[in-house]
Amino acid sequence: MRFLWYIPNTVEPGHRGDDAVPGYGTLDHSVELARLAEEHGWEGALIGTGWGRPDTFTVATALAARTTTFKPLVAVRPGYWQPAHFASSAATLDHLSGGRLLVNIVSGQDDLAAYGDVEGDQTERYARTKEFMRLVRRLWTSEHVTFEGSHFRVADSTVVPRPHGTGPRLYFGGASAAAEKVAATEADVQLFWGESLDGVADRIDRLRRLSSDLDRDLPPLEFGLRITTLVRDTSEEAWRDAEAKVAAMTSPPDAFRRRRPAVGQQRLLDLGHRGDVLDSCLYTAPGRHGGGGAGTTWLVGSPDEVAAALRKYADLGIDHFILSDTPYRTETARVGDALIGRLIS
Q1: DSSP states of 164-190 as a string?
Q2: In 3-state terms, what secondary structure has residue 322?
Q3: Model's pTM, two decimal places?
Q4: Under a CB-based contact definition with an 8 Å cutoff, are residues 227 and 279 in contact?
Q5: DSSP secondary-structure letter at 77?
Q6: What is the pLDDT of residue 11?
Q7: What is the distance of C-alpha 67 from the center of its chain?
Q8: What would the pLDDT profile of 283-303 be if each residue is shown by its tens digit?
Q9: Where do the H-state alpha helices sit in 175-283?
Q10: Backbone torsion region of residue 271, taken as left when φ is above 0, otherwise alpha when ψ lies between -120 and 50, otherwise beta
């Protein structure tokens, strides 16, 4: 199992209830979080992306330069990047960092017009993502690449320097039928948000069948879980703090209510209709009070309880875990110390 943390990548404090510590959003603050991750057992961390936030790739490069083992999982968007430009930048960072770069391909909602992109329908959007991923891999593994697709083209293109091996691993999210077809053929790791065990089991089974039906030509698809983990010394303390945090959350903003949720987000919100607590300790209430993405559902409990819940996901085929909780400075250490040793021993 591989364990990654999360670095919020915002200049404004308060991300998911994070503390407004001095220097929030500075390089020193982000480096502190990355070094804490190194010191407390995390292999690296996901660095979020979105227009109006610091450029994710620039932040990842700075963090790689000031750490030794930390692996940045850099979220990138086709459309914001052209594939050859991205392949070259990623190969350079992978080369300079000794092979530490990981990549998360994102095709979800963003302020596309702000950086000159356009939103096609879902089928077209994921067709572009598929083409982006396939071309980037070719540029990492071949020289003098000529490619002309529906969305991208290059002629006699060679990336210098070369990345380590076949290039960074490509993580990918998305729960729609179109997204799953891309994952089944192009991704190294399919990421799930914090669904129930039965939901994750169904999706793993479907993706494995899709990989076979679509003649995947890469090594077998792997699976990851991106979720909030609220861990305390005892179960009673954990649930008291979880309920207090939910009580302090605001209702979803108008924009959240107006916008139609993505398929994966809706799957999480629908879990709340089945109860506040599913499986052993999957808490669904945050989604009703404004929690979104990885903050929609939480695993809550003592170290032994949350570790046992994560093992159940591992038994289904989850090998990659991207965990988080706030305040990040405190929880990077607490969750790493509490869980990782229990799960890899």
Answers
A1: STT-SEEEE---SHHHHHHHHHH-SEE
A2: strand
A3: 0.93
A4: no
A5: -
A6: 80
A7: 20
A8: 999 999 888 888 899 999 999
A9: 177-186, 197-213, 235-248, 254-258, 263-271
A10: alpha
